[in-house]
Structure formats: C-alpha cells, structure tokens
Design a protein that fits this description.
Blueprint lengths: L2 H18 L7 H16 L4 H17 L5 H9 L3 H14 L3 H6 L4 H7 L4 H14 L4 H9 L2 H4 L12 H6 L1
Helix pairs in contact: 2-3, 3-5, 5-7, 7-9, 8-9
Length: 171
C-alpha cells in the first residue's frame, strides 16, 4: 500500500470514527480531539513527567467526548488500550500532589499505575523506599500496598549473582 493510500485510509477511518461518535467534523471539539491525538502520538516512550502529561491530556480529552465514547476514541484514534488510558488518567488525578517527588525518583509508568491507588502515607513510604534503595519496582509497590513489611526490605550483603566462582553458585 502506498503512502498516499495509507493517508487516505487513515483519514477515512478517522472520519468514520467521528461520524460514529456523532462529532461534527468541522467543529471545535473535532479540532481539539485531533490536537490531543497528535500530542498523544508525540509523547512516545514516556518519562515520569510525560506520564503525568499524558494523564492530564487524556483527562481533559475525556471531557470533550460524549459520555461513554472515551474508550472507543482512545483505542481507535490513538491506538492506546482503554485500560492504559485510564491508568494514565488515574496517575494524573491521584498522584499530582506527589508529582515532583515521583519525578525526582524517576518512577516508571508501570510503578505509577500501581501507586495510583495508594494512600498518601503509602506514597510517602514508596518515595522513602526509593530514596533508601535507589530504585522502586512494581514488586516493591505491591508489597507496600499490601502492607507486607518483610517483602519491602532489600537483602543485605553481597550481591551473589555478581560474584564469580563457586561462592556465587553456592548461595
């Protein structure tokens, strides 16, 4: 398929989507939605800050769409799973008070998705954990959310998988 054919096909698909959602193609909502879609594509692989930006963008875009059409629009127009889109929105809505701290620790988007359901105290605990252990992973967040003290402590001692010879194999 040529580039021209792909462009025509994409335009036809986009036009059909907006017709299906009953959004006027020449209206300001259509233009705002297209701008949002463009910005979503531009974000690409996301840093912590971009994860918050994506959540903000998706949250404001959801307000433009008719009730019950967000999932369909985000999947068909942006190629983003509805669940992922909701996770980004939850990060923006629930974690914004801790945004600067989470950006400072460079929390990954999957970690942020899990933290979106945390209480303020659990968020503070997760940030402390990262500062003490240099990296917050999904398993750590799950342990914090479950209230599992033992699972949160990192093993003390040598890193045996990095130790050569028989000592690294023994333990």
């Amino acid at each position: 398929m040529s580039n021209k054919s792909k462009t025509v096909s994409a335009l036809t698909t986009t036009a059909a989507l907006y017709a299906e959602l009953k959004i006027e193609p020449s209206g300001s909502v259509h233009q705002q939605l297209e701008l949002s879609a463009s910005r979503i594509f531009d974000l690409g692989r996301r840093t912590t800050e971009q994860t918050f930006e994506m959540g903000d963008l998706l949250s404001s875009t959801a307000m433009l769409l008719p009730e019950g059409t967000f999932d369909k629009w985000v999947k068909r127009r942006c190629g983003l799973a509805a669940r992922s889109a909701r996770n980004y929105v939850a990060v923006f809505r629930n974690l914004t008070p801790f945004r600067d701290e989470l950006v400072d620790v460079s929390a990954g988007s999957t970690v942020l998705f899990h933290l979106a359901s945390a209480t303020a105290e659990q968020l503070r605990e997760a940030i402390r954990f990262d500062e003490e252990n240099e990296r917050l992973q999904v398993a750590d967040v799950k342990a914090i959310l479950a209230g599992d003290e033992g699972a949160r402590s990192k093993p003390v001692g040598p890193v045996l998988h990095a130790t050569g010879g028989g000592r690294g194999v023994e333990d």
